[in-house]
Write a sequence for this structure.
């Protein structure tokens, strides 16, 4: 029971993916009309039609990649590790 399914280093990326999904949902909020007789063009703004769905899908892609990857994801390697790779 000591081993988790996700390496400790990848938990940060899980949180980042969740934050991206929440940010996309925040972009979708609002834009409704106060009365049904008045049309509000803010409902079809660029951020709601394009940015928000891309953020949500991107967040789910991040989550999927983190969950499927067994080894820890390292964006920044030490100099010693870079020299060993060469």
């Amino acid at each position: 029971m000591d081993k988790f399914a996700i390496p400790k280093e990848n938990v940060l990326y899980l949180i980042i993916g969740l934050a991206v999904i929440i940010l996309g949902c925040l972009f979708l909020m609002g834009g409704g009309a106060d009365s049904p007789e008045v049309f509000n063009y803010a409902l079809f703004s660029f951020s709601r039609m394009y940015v928000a769905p891309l953020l949500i899908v991107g967040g789910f892609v991040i989550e999927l990649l983190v969950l499927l990857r067994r080894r820890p994801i390292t964006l920044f390697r030490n100099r010693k590790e870079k020299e060993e790779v060469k």
In short: The radius of gyration is 20 Å. The chain has one domain: 8-85.
